[in-house]
What does this fold into?
Amino acid sequence: MGRSLTRWGAFVKIVVSYLPQSLKKNPLRAKKYRQRLTYHNTVTNLSDLPVEIINFIAERLYYIDQIRFRAVCKRLQSSIYNHIKFADRLPWIMGYNSSKEIHGGLIYLYEPSQKRRYRVDNEILVGAELHASKFGWLLLSKKTKSSTSPHSFFFYCPFTGEIILLPELDMGDANRATFSTAPTSSDCVIFVISIHLLSPKDVDYKFFVSTCSPGDTTWRSNLRLYETYGGLMFNVAYVNGVFYCAFHAYQMMGAYNHALQEWKVHPYPPVFKRPIVFERPPYYFLYLIESPDDRSVILLSKHYTGPAEYCLNVFRFDQSHMKWCRIENFTSGYSESHDHDDEQTVEIENLNKRMLFYSDLNGLSLAAEGEASELANTTHGNYGGGMVESSCLLQIYDWVHGGDGALLKKVWIQPPHTR
Amino acid sequence: MSTAATADASSSGDTTEGSVRLLTLQSEDGEVFEVKETIATQSVTIKGMVDDDCATSTIPVCNVTGRTLAMVIEWWNKHEIGAVSNEKELKEWESQFDTIDDKSDRDDVYDLLMAANYLNIPTLLDCCTSAVAEAIKGKSTDEMREFFDIKSDFDEKEEDALRKENQWAFEN
It folds into this structure.
């Protein structure tokens, strides 16, 4: 609407600036008249372009180029809006030295458009444990000396250096955490699943879901259960009001609906039910991937059938019908040993023009648009201190492994949408 | 709309050639161009005037020079449906706008950007913003200043403060 009004303004200007006949006979007067009506002179420098056009240009730049473009001169700095889009189609990677806690407060940002690594250090990161990476923000916690609330949580944006402090939480030995929206937005909720395995100081309850929002002084304990679900968890995800957790031993996914304060568990798709027999015990890793565009959570399973052989299976959890659909076009090396009877009970669908990025701590489903269109239907895994594995010949992140890159722990990270 | 065009055909500056109506555009420096209505309405601004029956006499495009308007009309001609046989050929023709290494190329692109924005021609605006963005990509702030001939007007203190905000991005 606003845009069409601007256009209407331009149109009115054209009509108004139509030169009256009398002026045509007096060229000098006509020239003056025209100069008054013409609201710009010929532009000979980029920085003299109207604000509107400067922003059209800036939103076609990658995040890294935007930062540098803004710093060119005062006019560009003041013209470029704070909330503009950027051209980045692929996520960045954050690398850090860690066993559990970040060493030395040093992290690296791997920028995919120029395939370059940047160094960020901040003292606040020393000894911090990383829980989630979303919307350009990291959710971290540090152990405190306090005996009652031993973990202090905070957000840190490595792109801008901003820090948002959160209340302290008494957390179990097994825990996972994530958040709903950027911490700068008013509806951001932080979710922590915490299971007390070793110190049963709370005899009644062992399993907690706690939430808080930026600005709160305490956490709310929303859910308490006697169950531990085996204690082991893969990653967690938040999609469309529901906080999901992939349990390890119990072969089910927990789902906590924040608005309804309702907890449910859903068994995994039937292909997981039957243990696969190998010489060594087979193992698999599960990754939850957030797919906010279609309001669903995606489960990617990586079944290792040999030391370096695995097959990928991708399922989508239909939130409204509470059922799993197998996504055919992401499946690779579907194992013969799977029970085909079981397979038939799962509906099959395709998810076109998407790219899936998964890691130990986060998973993203992104549209394969523009220059990323050749990466449609590909998966990119990034975990532990290993390599980034792409399911396609185009190994877009192979450059990350240079130097000490292969040894670093890695998660996906996207530049923040606000500065 | 077509009936309105026939009814208005008698008024000055509005001529028809066969069944195609011609519009008369006058540039800032007085150059007059006759353009098929079907082509000129690639400009959302002109389309609005045609739809509202305001395009019956000469349309002054007072912020655009004759030189630039000629380039705009060439763009319209190439982008008329059926003018170019395939998308590849069109992209090849458009690629002439991609290089803006010379000052004169840059000046043309700025003029075209102003015209495309003023006349609201989405395809042309898209092509020109992308050409400028491509030239910016991968350059350091100093390289951008040199390429686009922009002098930094930050004093040393301001420049330092600016770089501190995103220090990592300015380190090599």
Notes: The CA atoms of residues 23 and 33 of chain A lie 8 Å apart. Residues 2-16 of chain A form the longest helix (15 residues).
